[in-house]
Design a protein that fits this description.
The chain is mainly alpha-helical. The chain has one domain. It has seven helices and no strands. The protein has helices at 16-35, 43-61, 66-95, 102-127, 134-150, 156-174, 177-199. Helix 2 runs antiparallel to helix 3 (66-95) and helix 5 (134-150) packs parallel to helix 7 (177-199). The termini are far apart. The relative contact order is 0.16.
């Protein structure tokens, strides 16, 4: 009686030339992703952030205590961050750019450390009775984050960061915290947000 051998399915394997082509395509895609700029920063979102900062500056200037002044600005920071996240996500979806892409990750990893430093310094400086230096510190660190993150975005972003750094230096030299906060987080966001919206699709 003849034995029936079970035939194992033959494994499909790419031809060596096809395998090299796939590897080349993968390399090209990864190289393009790494060299691309993060363009999902929301121009109109920044305009909205600037508008809330102008309002916060007016409200903060009318507070009679440092605690209430700080509460106003922290509240505006939370609101502005929420606007930025939603607007960035919406613009990224419209452009078909995932926020997990290489440029987006690089932008976040460069932008977030100075913001984290500002969050840590805020209670430390306030508890030390140095609330007056907070506006300058916030502007400087935010500007540093924008400059470093902007290295992976469009050319106008680092320029905006330089503006924030200049505002921070001016604030530390001359005081007038609410005025410089309005000029920086309000005026610079509105001006550059409008330029970004016009040149880079919203």
């Amino acid at each position: 009686m003849a034995e029936h051998r079970i035939r194992r399915p033959r494994r499909f394997s790419l031809h060596p030339a096809a395998g090299r082509a796939v590897d080349d395509l993968r390399f090209i895609r990864e190289t393009m992703e790494q060299s691309a700029s993060f363009t999902a920063l929301p121009g109109w979102g920044q305009v909205a952030m600037g508008a809330t900062a102008l309002l916060a500056a007016v409200v903060a200037s009318r507070q009679s205590s440092a605690a209430m002044w700080l509460t106003v600005w922290i509240g505006d920071a939370i609101l502005a961050a929420s606007i930025a996240l939603v607007a960035t996500q919406n613009k990224a979806q419209r452009a078909g750019v995932p926020l997990t892409s290489g440029p987006a990750r690089k932008f976040a990893l460069s932008f977030l450390p100075p913001i984290g430093a500002a969050a840590i310094l805020t209670p430390v400086l306030y508890q030390a009775g140095l609330a007056r230096v907070l506006p300058g510190a916030w502007l400087l660190l935010y500007g540093a984050g924008v400059v470093s993150g902007g290295a992976f975005s469009v050319a106008i972003i680092p320029l905006m960061g330089v503006g924030f750094i200049a505002a921070g230096i001016g604030c530390l030299l001359f005081g007038w915290g609410n005025l410089f906060m309005a000029a920086g987080f309000g005026g610079l966001h509105i001006i550059f947000g409008f330029l970004i919206a016009r040149r880079y699709g919203g």
